[in-house]
Design a protein that fits this description.
2 domains, mainly alpha
């Protein structure tokens, strides 16, 4: 990496110095020293920014992996909980009648269906009584 930084600094210096012509020897030596120093500073900052960018990407990847792991663990807990509930329901169904267990599983939907069935004969009896008249 160090040699890459040196190559980059030399290229920057050569680019800048190539644009400057017509200087005397004393001024040219001073300018070369200044440009080389500035180019090295630019390359150091560039290398630091690249390093920070890579570290940031690694942090993001770790964060995503952690979220995925937590999500998988949560799904696993849900599956285990559902399996435990199914096992408990199976044990209960062995002891109780199948109607009670199915009623508990269906809950409100079963109650609504029973109420609808009970209400339907009442409506039919009213309809037949009006036809007789």
């Amino acid at each position: 990496m160090k040699s890459t930084n040196e190559i980059l600094a030399n290229e920057i210096s050569a680019f800048i110095l190539g644009k400057l012509k017509g200087l005397n020897t004393k001024s040219a030596k001073k300018l070369v020293k200044t440009v080389d120093g500035a180019a090295k500073e630019v390359v150091k900052k560039y290398a630091k920014l690249k390093k920070d960018e890579i570290e940031e990407k690694e942090k993001e990847a770790k964060k995503e992996a952690k979220k995925a792991k937590e999500k998988a663990e949560k799904a696993e807990k849900e599956k285990a909980k559902a399996a435990a509930k199914a096992a408990k329901d199976a044990k209960i169904s062995l002891v109780t009648s199948s109607e009670e267990v199915s009623e508990k599983k269906t809950g409100k939907a079963a109650k609504a269906k029973k109420q609808a069935e009970e209400a339907a004969p009442a409506v039919e009896s009213e309809a037949t009584s009006t036809e007789e008249v």
